[in-house]
Specification:
Layout: E1 3-7, H1 10-16, E2 22-26, E3 32-35, E4 38-45, H2 50-61, E5 68-77, E6 88-95, E7 118-119, E8 129-134, H3 146-152, E9 156-158, H4 161-170, E10 177-185, H5 195-214
Parallel strand pairs: 1-4, 1-5, 5-10, 6-8, 8-9
Antiparallel strand pairs: 2-3, 3-4, 5-9, 6-7, 6-10
Length: 216
């Protein structure tokens, strides 16, 4: 496999891809699929959270020479100027739940790691850009993120892409990463009645993008 899509959950995979077009080739430690009509295309379910995402990406890196990892999925939105359901290309990521400032590091910086903000390669698809923060906490109150929001001005929040970026960075492969996210809510507990319709629209837009990426 030369190109691998990385998604956190079965739910996302089933709503973005047509599974009968893929064949499951591994179940443990991670579900890995191969596209039936193009064996160079793969798909891995990373699992939820930073630890799972990092382990999954390191695992798939060991399986061959990858030219591209494409992360797709739903996110919470922190920027009310952005439209719910609209797909954006991620330009930078940063951790929101790492804080070792007592030892001289920046907020979000992993100890002994010189990088704080992870820059993604130039936009491969002509989509608007977005910055994202990642961490292992499900956040519904943006007041808990006040410091990192004021410092980094993120648009989205999720639980995986920061770890994916870091894993690729330490393997000198950050340049093969692409990430496209669609927000399903504003990550503040608002508009609960509209969540499922918003999610449906987000998945529709991600399906359209995935279809395009599969034919490139």
């Amino acid at each position: 496999m030369k190109i691998v899509f990385a998604l956190a959950m079965d739910y996302e995979i089933e709503n973005i891809f047509v599974l009968n077009e893929w064949v499951l080739i591994e179940e443990k430690p991670f579900k890995i699929y191969c596209l039936k009509k193009n064996k160079d295309m793969g798909l891995i379910k990373t699992g939820i959270g930073k630890v799972n995402a990092a382990a999954a990406i390191q695992y798939v890196l060991g399986k061959g020479t990858l030219k591209k990892i494409i992360n797709l999925g739903l996110v919470g939105c922190l920027n009310k100027k952005m439209k719910i359901g609209e797909v954006r290309s991620i330009s930078q990521s940063r951790f929101f739940d790492i804080d070792v400032r007592s030892f001289g590091y920046a907020l979000g910086q992993i100890p002994k790691c010189t990088i704080v903000n992870y820059p993604f390669p130039p936009n491969q698809v002509q989509l608007p850009l977005a910055k994202i923060i990642s961490g292992d906490s499900f956040v519904a109150n943006q007041n808990d993120l006040k410091e990192i929001i004021e410092l980094f001005h993120p648009d989205f929040i999720d639980m995986e892409i920061g770890a994916i970026a870091h894993t690729l960075y330490i393997n000198d492969k950050l340049n093969i990463l692409e990430s496209y996210k669609a927000p399903s809510d504003y990550a503040d507990g608002s508009a609960k009645n509209d969540f499922y319709e918003n999610e449906k629209q987000a998945f529709k837009n991600l399906r359209s993008l995935a279809s395009k990426l599969l034919t490139e």
